[in-house]
């Protein structure tokens, strides 16, 4: 980011989503795209991503800063320092409802606009650009509402990447 680039809204949105989840009594989770700038236990990384519970029961010293998200958490009973830039957050969601917000993640060393998950052999600039943010709908709460897809099986929610 140069001095002429405006600051990213992502850290502010993440803080707002965190407050929303806390106000609702939900458990906030983030999906982080792992690269060299991300400090997480690598043994828990799957497909270049890690899902982290950032709720107060799972973390200690949580800091949702503009440049870094930092906290301490236990993995397999072992305390670890976790640190990553907000630009690596792919999604924020509530464990209870699955509602949240998805974000586009770009490689730091690639040209602006090239996505980390662009199809092989095709630059992201050649493809239709996806939105930088996308709402992740939760389940309908009233019986009169249209039902979305069935909830994922198992104890952890599953995110579906939409391109």
Strand content of the residues, in percent?
Answer: 25-35%
Oligomerization status of the protein chains: single chain
Q: Radius of gyration in whole Å, from Cα? A: 17 Å
Structural class: mainly beta
Largest sheet: 5 strands, antiparallel
Unreliable residue stretches? 109-131, 140-148
Helix content: under 10%
**N-to-C SSE string, H for helix and E for strand:** HEEEEEEEE
According to DSSP, the number of beta strands is 8
Distance between the termini: 26 Å
How many H/I helical runs? 1
Overall 3D shape = globular
Strand adjacency order, main sheet: 2-1-6-7-8
Q: State mean pLDDT (0 to 100 scale).
A: 78
Q: How would you characterize the overall build of this protein?
A:
- There is one protein chain.
- The radius of gyration is 17 Å and the shape is globular.
- It has 1 helix and 8 strands, in the order αββββββββ.
- The chain has 163 residues and is mainly beta.
- The protein has one helix at 10-24, and strands spanning 28-33, 49-53, 59-64, 69-75, 78-84, 89-94, 100-103, 133-136.
Task: Furnish the topology, listing elements before pairings.
Elements: H1 10-24, E1 28-33, E2 49-53, E3 59-64, E4 69-75, E5 78-84, E6 89-94, E7 100-103, E8 133-136
Antiparallel strand pairs: 1-2, 1-6, 3-4, 4-5, 6-7, 7-8
